[in-house]
């Protein structure tokens, strides 16, 4: 059975609170390490707000876990099937116009992440990211520019793939008036820490 958004937020909040308490951190200290406000962290822990992708990654780094550790584990640890109408929704940023990702693979104790994005014109997408590990981006449909700071910019067409060291600062930009369907894959280092999204200056 697919978990509701309200129930999912409550479970994520309880997980964040449990990991924080296990780490011996106050809400003030965890909020400071994650670069978010203490009131917002309290909302997350109570389940009244859900974390964006950026916040999920920042909290995971501050807690010393992989991002998938903040999401509910699937019923089976051996085989996971994510149907077209399921998968946790994760906005790119904490703003109402942010593009929404769908977590296909983001589980505790798993270094692989696979997230699907359907980006439409007008949605906010262009956060700068730096992540530990290696990433690959496969464009299913639409047009997308991928900019890697200090290296170059590439326009992706349907069925194009780009892969690079995720530690390089990078961002995506939607091109044209048509939506883009993007498959994002990230392999964290086996013994690495959580990803480190960063804002553009």
Question: Could you please describe the fold and organization of this structure?
Answer:
The chain is an alpha+beta fold and 201 residues long. Helix content is 23%, strand content 29%. The strands form three sheets. The protein has a six-stranded antiparallel β-sheet, with no helix packed on it. The protein has a three-stranded antiparallel β-sheet with strand order 7-6-9, with no helix packed on it. A hairpin with a 6-residue loop joins strand 2 and strand 3.
Helix content: 10-25%
**Helix run count:** 4
Largest sheet: 6 strands, antiparallel
Placed side by side, the strands forming the largest sheet appear as: 1-2-3-10-5-8
Measure the end-to-end span.
Answer: 42 Å
How would you spell out the order of helices and strands? HHHHEEEEEEEEEEE
Work out the strand percent.
25-35%
Q: Which structural class best describes the helix and strand composition?
A: alpha+beta
Query: Could you tell me the mean pLDDT?
Result: 87
As residue ranges, the low-confidence spans are: 192-201
Oligomeric organization of the protein chains: single chain
> How many distinct beta strands?
11
Output the radius of gyration.
16 Å
Query: What overall form do the CA principal axes indicate?
Result: globular
Structural descriptors:
six-stranded antiparallel sheet; 11 strands; globular
């Amino acid at each position: 059975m697919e978990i509701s958004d309200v129930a999912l937020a409550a479970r994520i909040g309880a997980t964040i609170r449990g990991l924080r308490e296990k780490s011996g951190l106050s809400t003030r200290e965890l909020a400071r390490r994650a670069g978010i406000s203490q009131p917002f962290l309290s909302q997350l822990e109570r389940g009244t707000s859900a974390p964006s992708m950026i916040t999920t990654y920042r909290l995971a780094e501050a807690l010393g876990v992989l991002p998938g550790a903040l999401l509910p584990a699937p019923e089976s640890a051996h085989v996971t099937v994510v149907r077209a109408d399921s998968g946790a929704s994760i906005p790119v940023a904490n703003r109402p116009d942010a593009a929404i990702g769908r977590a296909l693979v983001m589980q505790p104790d798993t270094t692989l992440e696979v997230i699907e994005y359907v980006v439409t014109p007008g949605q906010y997408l262009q956060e700068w990211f730096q992540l530990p590990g290696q990433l690959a981006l496969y464009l299913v449909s639409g047009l997308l520019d991928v900019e890697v700071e200090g290296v170059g910019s590439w326009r992706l067409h349907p069925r194009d793939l780009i892969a690079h060291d995720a530690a390089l600062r990078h961002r995506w930009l939607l091109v044209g008036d048509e939506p883009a369907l993007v498959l994002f894959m990230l392999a964290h280092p086996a013994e690495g820490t959580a990803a480190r999204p960063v804002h553009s200056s």
